[in-house]
Write a structure and sequence with these properties.
Shape: globular
Number of strands: 0
CATH superfamily: ABC transporter involved in vitamin B12 uptake, BtuC
Radius of gyration: 20 Å
Distance between the termini: 31 Å
Strand content: under 5%
CATH class: Mainly Alpha
CATH topology: ABC transporter involved in vitamin B12 uptake, BtuC
Number of domains: 1
Length: about 325
């Protein structure tokens, strides 16, 4: 409970800091005044807002909420992925969801010939869904059907193919590369309430589904035979878990691009702190991942004069941690 209280306080503090930090230099007193008007409902209509009001109300607030949603989606999806594959270093990207979402956005940008906008969210969700179905179909046929290793190998293979196709299209069509380059690097810059409203139902549905699975996932983590002996249904658990991962990862990727390490580091670190019980790991991932995501987004705004994509910061933070984790004896023994 102490960890939950401290985590909640830290998330609230980071959310407040996020509203005061950005590429535009706005005085703290001005931010407080604008937020005060926003809370009391005295803000002018969008067409009558000045530059500072537009930056705070239409950019920083949606961006802060979006960072929290994206972090929550990736964190819970990562914990669930590690449970279904029984691999503490698994990541939602192993199922190819990110690569499928990116391919759909690249194809959509090439066909529609316009800049990324509201439609790319639906394109990314469609790509994530198609990829998840393909991974499940491939992984559930033949011998050892629906084994964790087979699902992961299917996802890795499809991710490699989809990433190669996306790269080929982008390199052969420079205008497509120019449209998607910031999104592909993982960025929350320029996001508005439209993306926030679009992905919120998917994140909410995925979180609800995931929070209904801890007992089944605990049984599954012991192995299929042990899960069946305890009254579990491994096949059904994997199908439902795959649906939740698709919703969470697809929506997060649609909003912020193919981010890495958030879904890997947070569940693994929490497992070292709290133990292997997913009745704690899933809810705590829902709290801890937004903290890491929001921290990375704040650093991305201030670390250099020109704002960095948040995906660059998460990679710089995550790579050393991943190296340290892989050097641990318990990880080497997996």
């Amino acid at each position: 409970m102490l960890i939950i209280l401290l985590g909640t306080a830290l998330l609230c503090a980071l959310s407040v800091v996020s509203l005061f930090v950005g590429s535009g230099s706005i005085e703290a007193a001005t931010v407080v005044e604008i937020l005060g008007k926003f809370i009391t409902g005295e803000t002018p209509p969008i067409g009558e807002r000045n530059t500072d009001e537009l930056l705070i109300l239409d950019r920083r607030i949606p961006r802060t909420l979006l960072a929290i949603l994206v972090g929550a989606g990736l964190g819970v999806a990562g914990a669930l992925m590690q449970a279904l594959t029984r691999n503490p270093l698994a990541d939602p990207g192993l199922l190819g969801v990110n690569a499928g979402a990116m391919l759909a956005v690249v194809i959509g940008s090439a066909v529609m010939g316009s800049s990324l906008g509201f439609s790319h969210v639906w394109l990314a969700m469609a790509g994530a869904l198609i990829t998840s179905v393909a991974v499940y179909v491939i992984g559930s046929t033949g011998r050892s059907a629906q084994s964790p290793a087979k699902l992961v190998l299917s996802g890795v293979a499809l991710a490699a193919v989809f990433s190669g196709v996306s790269l080929a299209i982008s390199l052969s069509m420079p205008q497509v590369f120019d449209r998607i380059r910031f999104w592909a690097a993982g960025s929350l810059q320029g996001r508005s309430t439209s993306e926030l409203e679009t992905i919120f139902p998917f994140i909410l549905a995925g979180v609800i589904i995931a929070l209904l699975l801890p007992r089944a996932v605990n049984a599954l983590s012991l192995g299929d035979d042990a899960a069946v002996a305890l009254g579990g249904r491994p096949m059904l658990t994997r199908v439902i878990g795959l649906i939740a991962i698709t919703l969470l990862s697809g929506a997060a990727t649609a909003a912020a691009g193919p981010l890495t390490f958030i879904g890997l580091i947070v569940p693994h670190a929490l497992r070292m702190l709290l133990g292997p019980d997913y009745r704690w790991l899933l809810p705590m991932s829902l709290l801890a991942a937004p903290i890491l995501m929001l921290s990375a987004d704040i650093l991305a705004r201030v670390v250099v004069a020109a704002e960095l994509p948040v995906g660059v910061v998460t990679a710089l933070l995550g790579a050393p941690v991943l190296i340290a984790l892989t050097r641990r004896k318990k990880v080497r023994d997996l």
